[in-house]
Amino acid sequence: MEEIEVIQLNGFLDAYNKIDYYKRKVEEIRVKRDTMLLKTDYLLLPDSKIYNDEIKLNKVKTYRQELRDFMNKLMSEQIDTNIFLDIDEYADMYFPKLDT
């Protein structure tokens, strides 16, 4: 009979430091977040349609800041998420939404 190793985990960071799956998943989440940021880069350019609409521009800036803050919150255990979800489902469930 194969012996199973039991690992005691004390929160997300402990799991991140002990289990490679968590590191891979965090990197996958980071790449998805970076992709979402890239998709809105053009909105901050002076020739974008919303650049002169202060309300919409502020929504984009807030959204982008929330995306940037997301990884820090995840890694400092300020938010609790299910990292076992498919990455698109994860993003739909936990990432901020852009409402313009």
Word description of this protein:
The chain is mainly α and 100 residues long. It has one domain (12-94). Helices cover 56% and strands 0% of the residues. The chain is built from 4 helices and no strands. The chain has helices at residues 12-18, 20-38, 54-75, 87-94. The N and C termini lie far apart (58 Å). The model has no long low-confidence stretch (mean pLDDT 94).
How many domains, as an integer? 1
Q: What overall form do the CA principal axes indicate? A: elongated
User: Overall mean pLDDT score?
Assistant: 94
Question: How many E strands?
Answer: 0
List low-confidence stretches.
Answer: none
Q: How big a fraction of the residues is strand?
A: under 5%
Number of helical segments? 4
Structural class: mainly alpha
What's the story with the biggest beta sheet?
A: none
SSE arrangement, N to C: HHHH
Distance from first to last alpha carbon: 58 Å
How much helicity do the residues have? 55-70%
- Radius of gyration, whole Å: 17 Å
Provide the fold topology.
Layout: H1 12-18, H2 20-38, H3 54-75, H4 87-94
Give a nutshell description of this structure.
The protein has 100 residues and is mostly helical.
